[in-house]
Amino acid sequence: MSALPIPQLQDLETTASFQTSPAEILETRSRSQKVGDRQKAIKFSRKQSASTTLVLLKFLQKGSAVLAVFTMVGSLAIYLSTVRIPQLWSQEYKSLEALQRQEQQLVAIDEALKYEIAQQAQEADLEMLPISSERTLFLDRSSVTPQAQKVSSNPAKHFESIPMGY
Fold first, then answer.
1. What is the pTM of this model?
2. 3-state SS of the chain: helix, strand, coil percent to 5?
């Protein structure tokens, strides 16, 4: 009724002839233990190589992060040296040129005033005397006391006292 064939006596004899002795069983066990040890060693070496790989990858990650920081600092330094510093220098140079132009204009005005004063001094109707130490005047300091200003109750009177020419 079962689908398996019923074993014959001849099959049992052949099976019995293939049975192993206890020494063979021990030898097979020791071989399987050696194979198991090899597998454990392979697993351990895989774990060890995996851990060394992870350590190597961590080191590589840290190194690349440091390299990225140095690259950013270097690019910032290059930007400053090639773009920003010349811009600042150009702005300062323009302000220096403007100040030099103003100085030249002031020198020209000063020289024009000196020339005009010299022309007036050469006119005959003005009697200017040459500078000498005998005609130099020395003035003593006077003690000036501030006067209290009168505050008027009517502000219109205050504005009336101020001349219109100012």
1. 0.35
2. 70, 0, 30
Cα separation, 84 vs 105, whole angstroms: 32
At 146 the three-state DSSP class reads coil
pLDDT, tens digit, for every residue of 79-101? 888 888 888 899 999 999 999 99
CA distances 75 to 72, 83, 88, 146, Å, are: 5, 11, 18, 66
Task: Report the b/e string of 103-131 with b at 16+ CB within 10 A.
Answer: eeeeeeeeeeeeeeeeeeeeeeeeeeeee
CA–CA gap between residue 50 and residue 46 (Å, rounded): 6
Is 20 within 8 Å of 28 (Cβ atoms)?
Answer: yes
- Are the beta carbons of 135 and 129 closer than 8 angstroms? yes
